């Protein structure tokens, strides 16, 4: 039996439906266990941050992308003791590539350019 059933279900559903190139699932529940809303909760899987890069997000605005994920995780969000907070970063492969290039530039690293040889 898994000790992370909610995370496992999220990983499975997102992978099956969105075929992500990048999928990061961060369980931040421990940082929020002391909050008033969490009093009496025995779940260790209530607060998550997700980073998802998928072709499925192409030509969709952020709200539509987030609705896609919420629809996939409807059961986990509605379940008693389930997900209380879900932070999403959704992007296309091109958006991820641009972000990585920006981060490299900020760190002073050379940016690979197919046009320069």
Please sum up the structure shown.
This protein has 117 residues and is an alpha+beta fold. It is 38% helix and 17% strand. The longest helix is centred in the N-terminal third of the chain and has 14 residues, at 5-18.
Describe the structure.
The protein is α+β, with helices and mostly antiparallel strands and 117 residues long. Helix content is 38%, strand content 17%. Strands 1-2-3 form a 3-stranded mixed beta sheet. The relative contact order is 0.18.
Largest sheet properties: 3 strands, mixed
Mean pLDDT: 85
Name the helicity range: 25-40%
Strand order of the largest sheet: 1-2-3
The global form is globular
Radius of gyration: 17 Å
Head-to-tail CA distance between termini: 53 Å
Number of strands: 3
Count of individual helical segments: 4
Strand content: 15-25%
Write down the secondary-structure element order. HEEHHEH
Structural class: alpha+beta
Poorly predicted runs: 34-39
